[in-house]
Amino acid sequence: MIERNGCRFFTHNFAEYLYENMFQTAIIVIVTTLAIVPMSEETGVNTVCPPNCACNEDTLVVICKENTLNEVPITLNPAIERLILGHNKIKTVDAAAFQFYSMLKHIDFSNNQLVRIPNQAFGTQAKLIELHLNQNRLSNITDKTFHGLKSLTVLNLRGNFLEDLPNKIFNHLSRLTELDLGHNRIQRIDPETFEGLPSLKILHLDDNQLTKVPTHSFQYLSGLAELHIGLNSFRSLGNDSFARLNSLTKLDLAGAGLVNISDFAFRGLDNNLRSLILSDNELVTIPTKQLSKLSRLEELSIGQNPFSTLPKDCFKGLVNLRHLVVSGAPNLVAIDTGAFAENLNLEIITFTDNKQLKYIGDQALTGLPNLKDAILRDNGFVSFKESLVPWPLLRTFDVSGNPIDCECSLSWMRDLLLQRNTTHVLCSVPQSLKDKPLRHLTAEDLGCSTYVSTHQTIIGAICGIVVALVALLLILLYRYRHKIHDLFKNYKWKKQTKVNKNKQAEYQKTFNDDEFIIRTAQHQTLKPIPVTEL
């Protein structure tokens, strides 16, 4: 810059000057901008709500969702507590921008294009409680990424490109209760990755590329309540895989690729585990022995496995089981009687989408006094016996989606559906009733009238034969009444003669010859009684 005749002129170095004084220039631009924009009633600071955003000055919530933003706005109310920036095109977190918003408690960066987070980018967010960074392109985080977030309780990193979790990267998040690392590319977790997380209750490691359970990394998570670690490639669970997680109440192993489970894989979980998900694995039999140690288990989901039967006592030891889910088992054909013999606390059974399941033992569901909901939808059953379960006492029963054979033996179910009007059961056979609702059919539709007519015909024929036999007997009695009378008279006379003979023999036996001689001798020895003369 040069001065001529009292006037200043910029030289060709003006651009360089601006670059060297960029920070001061930015401040001037911001101040100038704020001077002409509306002022917040809360803070007395001028604010601007970006186009297509919703800024509520009462609730202190700003929503700029599904917009075209490529950076964090810096003209918002500094007092905002909730900032929603999901579904935009933001590529990095600007620490300079966030220094204006120290009151934030909730930030949502989900579904953006974040590729990096500078160290201490959230250094001024000491009050932040929830941070959602899910569905971005983050491939690397360090122990300084989340520095300053001392109040954070929820951190969502699902759906990024993370591959490794180095030691102590969450060391500054002592209040964190929920951490979601699912749907990444994680192959390795260091032994001290979770150090500094004494408050963590929920951990998602599902849908990654782990080949074994990171047992040693759980040493700092003694208070963990839920672990979601399915959709990996474990193949097997070794003994004591979760031994350090003594407070665990829910374990999700869905889609973990399990072929084998060691006998003591769940050792250490028997006192607290309430919910276990083993669905979508490669188990060819029910792991009865392994499960029997979990006496406190209340919920078990074990569908989408290639086992073919639920044999007797297959859930032995699960005396507190209340909800059983077996859905999508492609090879399941039968449920044997006694399969739930030790599960007397069962309240809900859910068997759905098992297309080959056609047989269930007559006594399989009896003896379950607490059963309230029976969901047997979309299986292969063609009929149900009325004695299978006390249907009228159920709170919910759903047998829809089965290839039901609508015949007279199901008239009881039709009557029950009319009373309860809860489930929509369609007929599959016979062809004349296909896709018709069972509850709308008559007894004649179900073939019951034909059955009753045949039954009545048989009973009528039997009655006719009995009447004919009785009439024939009466005719014979009348025709031969004299002979019958004579026979009866002769029988009576012979009976009387026999009685007389018996009496005579008895009399003769009483006065036989020996007794007569003795009596005579006694009579002769008697002295005559003197007679007094008058």
Tally of DSSP β-strands: 27
Average pLDDT, all residues: 84
Give the CA-based shape. Answer: elongated
Radius of gyration over C-alpha positions, nearest whole angstrom: 47 Å
For the termini, the CA-CA separation is 201 Å
> Percent range for helical residues?
10-25%
Strand order of the largest sheet: 3-4-5-6-7-8-10-12-13-15-17-18-20-22-24-25
Largest sheet: 16 strands, mixed
Which descriptors apply to this entry?
single chain, 534 residues, alpha/beta, 16-stranded mixed β-sheet, three-stranded parallel β-sheet, 8 helices, 14% strand, disordered N terminus
SSE order and pairing:
Elements: E1 2-4, E2 7-9, H1 14-20, H2 22-35, E3 54-56, E4 61-63, E5 82-84, H3 95-98, E6 106-108, E7 130-132, E8 154-156, E9 164-165, E10 178-180, E11 188-189, E12 202-204, E13 226-228, E14 236-237, E15 250-252, E16 260-261, E17 275-277, H4 288-291, E18 299-301, E19 309-310, E20 323-327, E21 334-335, E22 348-352, E23 359-360, E24 373-375, E25 396-398, E26 404-405, H5 411-420, E27 427-429, H6 448-479, H7 481-510, H8 513-524
Parallel strand pairs: 4-5, 5-6, 6-7, 7-8, 8-10, 9-11, 10-12, 12-13, 13-15, 14-16, 15-17, 17-18, 18-20, 19-21, 20-22, 21-23, 22-24, 24-25, 26-27
Antiparallel strand pairs: 1-2, 3-4
